[in-house]
Amino acid sequence: MKYLTDQMLIEVYHRAVDLQLDPDFIELLNTEIKRRNIGHTQVVSA
């Protein structure tokens, strides 16, 4: 996760949700988004 930029992380998160990937993987991405303090508006607008 540390090699992903914030923008890449958001894109991966959206792609994982769209593809309905494993919920545990999506939660891992969500946890990283929260850890980096990426605001909700940044995640929604990406």
UniProtKB/TrEMBL annotation:
The keyword Phosphoprotein does not apply. Gene3D superfamilies: Sporulation inhibitor A. The keyword Secreted does not apply. Pfam families: Sda (PF08970). SUPFAM superfamilies: Sporulation inhibitor Sda (SSF100985). GO terms for molecular function: protein kinase inhibitor activity. Keywords: Protein kinase inhibitor. This is Sporulation histidine kinase inhibitor Sda. It comes from Brevibacillus ruminantium. The lineage of its organism: Bacteria, Bacillati, Bacillota, Bacilli, Bacillales.
